[in-house]
Amino acid sequence: MEKTIYIRMRNRVQVKPEELLLLKDIAQIIASEDIYQNLASLQVKKISPKDHIHIIDVMKVIHFITGIYPEYEVQTVGPPQTIIEVIYKKKGLSIPFFILVWFLLFFGAAMTIMNFHEDVSMQTVHQRLYFIMTGKVVAKPLLFQIPYSIGIGVGMILFFNHVFKKRLNEEPSPLEVEMFNYQQSLDQYVIMHENKESVKHLDDD
What radius of gyration, in Å, describes the C-alpha atoms of the chain? Predict the structure, then answer.
């Protein structure tokens, strides 16, 4: 145990431009107390202003550690790479652009709902339900249409599990799950692309 270093690479790390990455930033470390602090503060990489995404492979980390502590054995668990994402300062929000996007989303969603209701003849269904329950024929059965419209809004809130920025419960919404799956696929693509680039450079050498 005393001559063994255990490291677990983190999946994704967000950093600022020109930030100096330490080993503790990209990996969890278990080691003897006499070397832990020195090991955790080892400088792994300085982020270039031109970097956006960078991959640090566990093999490079092992080579880096054993070069400094050759008498120690390095054991790894967890993911084989850490994705370094450089976060740049966000630009200020343009009010006209925000209003334009809001109108596009609002009217786009409204048109989608109306076209769906037209395809399934929702108004005709409401009219027939109203006739069955009251025996009267009306063109606009508001008794059904108003609660139905409110129900659509409430259903969307429950579906996305958010009221503005407030979460209704701790369970992730379907949209958050899809975003997580998309991020996983994107990370896998970045890792595969980086590995192909590394192999290509080795072949060129």
Answer: 28
